[in-house]
Amino acid sequence: MSYVQDIKKSAKEVIRVELSEFQGKSYLNIRVWYKVLESDEVYKPTQKGVTLRLDLYPEFKNAILAVESEIDKISKIDSSQKPNPEASSPNREMPPVPQ
Prior knowledge:
It contains 1 helix and 4 strands, in the order ββββα. The chain is an alpha+beta fold. It has one domain: Transcriptional Co-activator pc4, Chain A. Strands 1-2-3-4 form a 4-stranded antiparallel sheet, with no helix packed on it. The longest helix has 25 residues, at 57-81. The termini are far apart.
């Protein structure tokens, strides 16, 4: 197995992206791994994930790039709809100052 990269999902889980080999064939494996003991750095795989034959990688990559384009659009919409915390409302009352 050829380790590639861990992406921290939470304090107890990582998403591990790796190249693996099974019966002489290579695969891309993207799977959630969990920490066995909180004080330890040992992780074990879960059933959550996907394993792809390498010949499917170009199609998978294209799908990720297409989704990335949509994510960019959503991110722009989401950021434009967030209220500006620095903008103050002229009708907003100030809370009383404690004495």
